[in-house]
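Thread: Newbie trying to understand structure tokens

Hi all, I'm a second-year student working on a class project, and my supervisor (Dr. K.) asked me to get a predicted structure for one chain before our next meeting. I've only ever worked with sequences, so writing a 3D structure as a token string is new to me. If someone could post the tokens and maybe explain what I'm looking at, I'd be very grateful. Here's the chain:
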Amino acid sequence: MDLTVEEARRRAEVVAALGPEWDPVAVPREEEAAHALLYSGLDEEQQGLHAMLVAAGVLPREVPDRAPSA
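---
Reply by user tm_fold:
Sure, no problem. This is what the structure looks like when written as tokens:
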């Protein structure tokens, strides 16, 4: 059973549902900006907790081209 046509239709429906303003290139940049904002302005205790969560693998490590949060 070939589901190629059904998969193409499903993908087209997903893209249509996202709407014309959806920009797949901007999404990662916006996520990085949100991440940087979320972890900016941490006090010393919060920075320590953030570092501990990163070391434990709970939070992702910093992306190389992004400024570190702690």
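A couple of things are worth pointing out once you decode it. DSSP finds three helices and no strands in the chain. The two ends are 53 Å apart (CA to CA). Feel free to ask follow-ups in this thread.
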